[in-house]
Design a protein that fits this description.
733 residues; alpha+beta; Aldehyde Oxidoreductase, domain 3; Aldehyde Oxidoreductase, domain 4; seven-stranded mixed β-sheet; binds dioxothiomolybdenum(VI) ion
Length: 733
């Protein structure tokens, strides 16, 4: 059954009453100006001490009695036929307990899995790999995206073109638009392959007990891993138990049972003992996913007033043997334009497969579009921020542009002198967008114990954003108790189902289920309290650690006393996450401002400060939300200035698969980051929470590239903006 509610929704300066139809057993969505006691306050992570002291149990830390260590043999060739694999010498090595073949007839990238062993120590496992004899027939290969498009190029997949089918989006008519344009800018922009570099590498510990498989896994999706393994080993899902207590990052690369997880389970079965298989760093770079590169031919047309009249994108991107390289999202979203055409094509190469990576496609699309916008602004002799304001597609972002410009000091900085000796300062701004709405599916359990503790259980996982904290906060809010009384248990498929942590959906998918479960538990507690207070349950509320008659705070009984009256041991209630309501707005905006200093003698770029303005519906915990902004910005600095997977053209092998040679932004590269949030009461769920992890990474590299252009007066249209490219741009080499 459903009921109608009218709620105050919107954002500063734009609030209205909106009627929503919600299920009967749903709490009314938190609305604009709702007075909340716990939600919205800065709270230290409930598991922060565990992490800081190194006692939080990551998959890497799992040790079982009799556990073996797995290792994977990988192809040294980027393309080869596997004629035979001889495991006999490896099997004879003392301490080796199992050796298996992957069974691929052809390998298509250097680093692809060929065979694996399990042994009593990691050292013996590695020695055993050296004893495996593989007879390869090397085949012609192609690793360069441009080469791969030539008719003469070796085929990555036999009988299939290296150029994928085009994905075309068309609105209006770009040709008409360009005919009306007063200014047109066209250029080609490129971005490199970026790897995820999760601090905890991929891997698992697998244990069989009869036909029961238990897997401790570094994953973003415990239920996805469960289902993948159930299919693969032909087991009912309840025979597979997946545990991820803590997870050292994933960024999109850890959604299912990848080869290393499957191999761990196969080795454990073959050896009759548990097997731990965590990837070495090099394999992590080579074989577990990446952000595809991009070649983007961008054409923008605008009227004299700066109004965009046409946007055109021709894009090619290579995710190696994987697809999904498109980058058109920002072109269709950030700015209002009647005529838009985007065409994306995947190009296949003999390189490790792509996987989703933090706002797949968007940082690369945003970089090219936003730098092109700056080049167009210069042609139009228009202020860059003004050009964006005139074409901005989102009313929340309009507010964010104003707020960000003020805090960043855009106007003062625009007028400041650019040159200080051989250093040039510049500023840039870029728009962000995302759609972290979450989805239906999660189910939560809330349990109150007689000692007054409340435990929330839900089968989600914490990718690193502080999920336990925000779930406990939501439950504490609903039950009117302090945060310390509530704990959240997650990361186990024995709890009720939840969705994978991807698409910035963890907070928006799980908080509504937890709030509903807590509300149902509250109903039960109110029924226990009612006779204690001589009142009707409907007249009661739970606040400030008490259950009391609404409007009569002195007629109260403590939450602890109510819990003491729970019959037997505990009281349990469940909640589920319904589909999103129509709400107020279902998109997310955001924008980031960056200031850089470019040394025109050395070509080095330093990011001085970043102001990031974002909206994510209701912010549950500003402290952990700011952490996500910091992470997104720091990762964006790496994408802008440093990161690039390099393959050797002769051998097709990755030459920088270490954290020394694959350069990430480090502490010295990290500027002052100011995170600002614009609160939007969106009413799409009972909490109104949207995701943040991806939105905050979309615009950083773009803002930095725009700032470099401002500093040196020449656009560097190719990421990463390395010193050689800067020096070439300023004419030094
Ligand atoms: Mo994300 S790329 O959906 O983890």
């Amino acid at each position: 059954m459903a009921r109608n509610v009218t709620v105050r929704l919107g954002f500063e300066g734009n609030i209205s009453d909106v009627r929503l139809v919600i299920p009967d057993d749903e709490p009314t969505p938190w609305q604009w100006g709702e007075p909340l006691a716990v939600v919205g306050r800065e709270m230290a992570r409930v598991d922060g001490a565990l992490k800081a002291t190194g006692t939080a149990p990551y998959t890497y830390d799992v040790e079982l009695p009799g556990m073996l260590y797995g290792a994977i043999l990988r192809s040294p060739y980027p393309h080869a036929r596997v004629r035979s694999v001889d495991l006999s010498a490896a099997r004879r090595l003392r301490g080796v307990r199992a050796a298996i073949e992957r069974g691929e007839a052809v390998v298509r990238f250097a680093g692809q899995e060929v065979a694996a062993v399990a042994a009593v120590s990691p050292a013996i496992a590695n020695d055993a790999l050296a004893l495996i004899k593989v007879d390869y027939e090397p085949l012609p290969f192609v690793i360069d995206m441009e080469d791969a498009q030539k008719p003469s190029a070796p085929r990555v997949f036999a009988g299939r073109a290296n150029i994928g089918a085009p994905a075309v989006f068309e609105a209006g008519n770009v040709r008409d638009g360009f005919e009306r344009a007063a200014a047109i800018h066209q250029a080609v922009y490129t971005t490199p392959v970026q790897t995820h570099v999760s601090l905890e590498t991929h891997g698992a510990v697998a244990r069989w007990e009869g036909d029961q498989l238990t897997v401790w896994c570094s994953t973003q999706g415990i239920f996805t891993v469960r289902d993948d393994l159930a299919v693969l080993f032909n087991l009912p899902p309840d025979k597979v138990h997946v545990i991820t207590a803590f997870l050292g990052g994933g960024f999109g690369s850890k959604f299912g049972a990848g080869p290393e997880v499957v191999i761990a389970a196969q080795l454990a079965r073959a050896a009759g003992a548990p097997v731990k298989l965590m990837l070495p760093r090099a394999a992590e770079h080579v074989a577990t996913g990446n952000r595809p590169n991009s070649w983007q031919q961008v054409k923008l047309g605008a009227g004299r007033d700066g109004q965009l009249v046409a946007i055109e994108l021709l894009e090619r991107g290579s995710g190696g043997i994987g697809g999904g390289a498109g980058s058109a999202g920002p072109y269709r979203t950030l700015y209002r334009c009647a005529n838009i055409r985007t065409e994306e094509r995947d190009i296949y190469t003999n390189a490790g497969p792509s996987s989703p990576m933090r706002a797949p496609g968007w940082p690369q699309g945003c970089f090219a579009l936003e730098l092109a916008m700056d080049e167009l602004a210069r042609k139009l002799k228009l202020d860059r921020l003004e050009l964006r304001r005139r074409n901005n597609a989102n009313p929340v972002r309009a507010l964010e542009f104003e707020l960000g410009a003020k805090v960043f000091n855009w106007h003062e900085k625009s007028r400041a002198p650019k040159a200080l000796g051989h250093r040039r300062r510049g500023i840039g701004v870029a728009a962000a967008a995302w759609h972290g709405l979450g989805s239906a599916g999660p189910q939560a359990q809330a349990i109150a114990y007689r000692d007054g503790r409340v435990v929330i259980q839900i089968g989600t996982q914490d990718i690193g954003t502080g999920t336990r904290s925000i779930l406990a906060m939501v439950a504490a809010e609903e039950l009117g108790v302090p945060l310390r009384q509530v704990s959240a248990e997650i990361g186990d498929t024995r709890y009720l189902f939840s969705v994978p942590s991807g698409g910035s959906s963890t907070a928006p998918s799980n908080t509504p289920a937890v709030r509903q479960a807590a509300a149902h538990l509250k109903d039960k507690l109110l029924r226990i309290a009612a006779p204690m207070l001589g009142a009707d349950p409907a007249s009661l509320e739970a606040r400030d650690g008490t259950i009391r008659v609404r409007g009569q705070p002195s007629r109260a009984v403590s939450f602890a006393d109510v819990c003491r009256s729970i019959p037997a041991d505990s009281l349990c209630a469940q909640g589920e996450r319904p589909p999103n309501y129509a709400g107020f707005r279902t998109d997310q905006a955001g924008c980031q401002f960056a200031e850089v200093e470019v040394d025109v003698e050395t070509g080095a770029v330093a990011v001085l400060n970043v102001t990031a303005v974002h909206d994510a519906g209701r912010i549950i915990n500003p402290l952990t939300a700011r952490s996500q902004v910091n992470g997104g910005v720091i990762m964006g600095i790496g994408f802008a200035l440093f990161e690039e997977r390099r393959l050797d053209p002769i051998s097709g092998v990755m030459v920088n698969p270490t954290m020394d040679d694959y350069k990430l932004a480090g502490p010295l590269d990290t500027p002052e980051i100011t995170a600002l949030f614009v609160e939007v009461a969106n009413g799409v769920t009972n909490t109104g929470v949207l995701g943040l992890g991806e939105a905050v990474h979309v615009a950083t590299a773009a803002a930095i590239a725009c700032a470099v252009y401002d500093a040196i007066g020449v656009p560097v249209r190719s990421l990463p903006i390395t010193p050689d490219k800067v020096l070439a741009a300023v004419g030094k080499v």
